[in-house]
Design goal:
The chain is an alpha+beta fold and 355 residues long. The chain is built from eleven helices and 14 strands. The protein has one domain: Jelly Rolls (Sandwich). Helix 4 crosses helix 7 and helix 5 crosses helix 7. InterPro entries: DIOX_N (IPR026992), IPNS-like_FE2OG_OXY (IPR044861), IPNS-like_sf (IPR027443), Oxoglu/Fe-dep_dioxygenase_dom (IPR005123), Plant_2OG-oxidoreductases (IPR050295).
């Protein structure tokens, strides 16, 4: 079966095909590690992604606040990913964001195509499918909707869906609140490096230039989930990534030499440390390898926000305070754009170390 270049995964999934096209088959090495995600999520033995309670992140009691901050720093150092709870964003707002995204994807493909992107012409915002530029050349079992959400003056609301009507207000308010949470997290991580509170935020662009990109990932039911991946193994290029999901498991992290399945923790946001903070911290904070599995029983949807520095203005390199004779720099200087192209498009650049 030859797949037309504009075929949506949702179209394939709802066509009744008993087998997926070979373009979606993963490599032999990957196939040996792809298992039933529902069985994996039930496992209680082995490493578990940490859950960090942020309730005391602003406590007036120094000891209480320090304990909360230390737990966050420990998770960022050992795992680079965590479930955060009591994060300060209301359940009502999160439910509105999820509901709007689900209702957008509930529309017929023809309606969603009105918002389609065109990567070849440089129009990256909009509705799309991952069709190329991944590591092994195979396709991923995913459609998505992608656009910039913050700063507000950099948004292009013409690419945001007009249906459902709550999409724009809910998503915009979520972005504002998540940006405030980003400042709190970066402050804690700065202190964890022995730096002043505002240092990391300044190093990634500050309030004016740190960009928040929003991506709704839609993983349809897959007739042969043992052969496919929703998203292949990768690390995020961002400074931080925040993820909501519809409580269907799928996220796996490569930790201590094995794939660990993230539990579905109610009322949590999954937070990843990205490559940008790993570079700035000279490897203290981990950008963990992760991937997404699919299944044949339930549609999985996730809502990711990537916090990214300006592409060309800032040179990413280990901060001087993180470097010593005992800890030489692990990364060569590069712009975020250089790093992103190397990671996403496998372009050669002598100034960029492989990662």
């Amino acid at each position: 079966m030859v797949i037309p270049t504009n075929t949506r995964v949702e179209t394939l999934a709802t066509s009744g095909i008993p087998q997926i096209p070979k373009e979606y088959f993963r490599t032999q090495d990957e196939l040996t590690t792809i298992t039933n995600i529902f069985d994996e999520e039930k496992k209680e033995l082995g490493p578990q992604v940490p859950t960090i309670d942020l309730n005391n992140i602003n406590s007036s009691d120094p000891k209480t606040r320090k304990k909360c901050c230390n737990e966050l720093v420990k998770a960022a150092t050992e795992w680079g990913v965590m479930h955060i709870v009591n994060h300060g964003i209301s359940g009502d707002l999160i439910n509105r964001v999820k509901d709007a995204g689900e209702r957008f994807f509930d529309q017929p493909v023809e309606e969603k195509e009105k918002y389609s992107n065109d990567i070849a012409s440089g129009k990256i915002q909009g509705y799309g499918s991952k069709l190329a530029n991944n590591a092994c050349g195979q396709l991923e079992w995913e459609d998505y909707f992608f656009h910039l959400v913050f700063p507000e003056e950099k948004r292009d609301l013409t690419v945001w869906p007009s249906t459902p009507s709550d999409y724009i207000p809910a998503t915009a308010e979520y972005a504002r609140q998540l940006r405030a949470l980003t400042t709190k997290i970066l402050s804690v991580l700065s202190l964890g490096l022995g730096l002043e509170e505002g240092r990391l935020e300044n190093e990634v662009g500050g309030l004016e230039e740190l960009i928040l990109q929003f991506k709704i990932n839609y993983y349809p039911k897959c007739p042969q989930p043992e052969l496919a991946l929703g998203v292949e193994a990768h690390t995020d290029v961002s400074a931080l990534t925040f993820i909501l999901h519809n409580m269907v498991p799928g996220l796996q992290l490569f930790y201590d030499g094995q794939w660990v399945t993230a539990k579905c923790v109610p009322d949590s946001i999954v937070m990843h440390i990205g490559d940008t903070l790993e570079i700035l911290s000279n490897g203290k904070y981990k950008s963990i390898l992760h991937r997404g599995l699919v299944n044949k029983e339930k549609v999985r949807i996730s809502w990711a926000v990537f916090c990214e520095p300006p592409k060309e203005k800032i040179i990413l390199k280990p901060l001087p305070e993180t470097v010593s004779e005992e800890n030489p720099p692990l990364f060569r200087p590069r712009t975020f754009h250089q790093h992103m192209e190397h990671k996403l498009f496998k372009k050669k650049d002598d100034s960029v170390d492989p990662k």
